[in-house]
Amino acid sequence: MALACSASTVSQITAVSTSSFVRSARSLKASPVVSFGVSNGSRVMAMATKKVSARPSAGGKKSWLPAVKGGGDLVDPQWLDGSLPGDYGFDPLGLGRDPAALKWYREAEIIHGRWAMAAVLGIFVGQAWSGVPWFEAGADPAAIAPFSFGSLLGTQLLLMGWVETKRWIDFLNPGTQSVEWATPWSRTAENFANTTGLQGYPGGKFFDPLALAGSVNSGKYTPDFSKLERLQLAEIKHARLAMVAMLIFYFEAGQGLTPLGVLGL
């Protein structure tokens, strides 16, 4: 009986050591993304949680045509695994087949969407405040006073050129721009560091001053990935809606119409 118990114990230990849970833990520990240092325990747990939650759910990927079964790559493209926020498998042109291209397209979608959201708000508020249609605001002398067009153009090129260059360099080499010489108005580069480890979502006290996707304890920002995931999904949905709205605004402007005018306001 003792021999039987011993054999049973050995088999149980072997089964546990070869289980998928242990293999997942070993692979997570070996991942270069996650550091298991003692000094950054909170970030270790957050990054580990994010890495696991970013994987497709066991229930399968979400589809932009849930009622259609089959359809091949048109309905369920192989290169989209559902891990990106707002990924519903919509890529009819196959633009995301190349992982490097997919990363860039997602970056471009986020940036264009954020600009579109700001533009839609600015169009409504600007016309409601001044009465000038958004597509005529640049030609209105009162719109740019007291600055000349040349000074505004130069400032735009210098400031936006500097910011966009930094963003482009950081996209190619993540983390290289969080240095003190590149942020002259801050005494520490830590405020501009990517606290989440995710491209396009730096977080931190500067990029998340209200701590909507994290918390600030003793002056140190700690990301909360459960909050961040919800905000990522909400942002990409609003961004896509705003880009569609801007496309409609352009068509309206071609007919001399404004959004407020179309709504009868």
Give me the secondary-structure topology.
Blueprint: H1 2-17, H2 20-30, H3 41-53, H4 99-130, H5 141-144, H6 149-172, H7 204-207, E1 214-217, E2 220-223, H8 225-254, H9 259-262
Helix pairs in contact: 4-8
Kindly describe this structure:
Mean pLDDT is 75; it is low at 1-59. Strand 1 (214-217) and strand 2 form a beta hairpin. The radius of gyration is 25 Å and the shape is globular. It has 265 residues and is mainly alpha-helical. It has two domains: 61-92, no CATH class; 98-265, Chlorophyll a/b binding protein domain (Chlorophyll a-b binding protein, Orthogonal Bundle), CATH 1.10.3460.10. A two-stranded antiparallel sheet has the order 1-2. The chain contains nine helices and two strands; from the N terminus they run H-H-H-H-H-H-H-E-E-H-H.
What is the mean pLDDT? 75
Shape: globular
Q: What is the fold named in CATH at topology level of the largest domain?
A: Chlorophyll a-b binding protein
- As for the number of domains, it is 2
Distinct helical segment count:
9
Q: Strand-residue fraction?
A: under 5%
Q: Report the CATH C-level class of the largest domain.
A: Mainly Alpha
CATH architecture of the largest domain: Orthogonal Bundle
Give the CA-CA distance, first to last residue.
Answer: 88 Å
Strand line-up of the largest beta sheet? 1-2
Rg calculated over all Cα atoms: 25 Å
Q: Could you give the order of the helices and strands? A: HHHHHHHEEHH
SS-derived structural category: mainly alpha
- Percent helix range: 40-55%
Question: What does the largest sheet look like?
Answer: 2 strands, antiparallel
CATH-defined superfamily of the largest domain: Chlorophyll a/b binding protein domain
Low-confidence stretches: 1-59
| Beta strands, count | 2
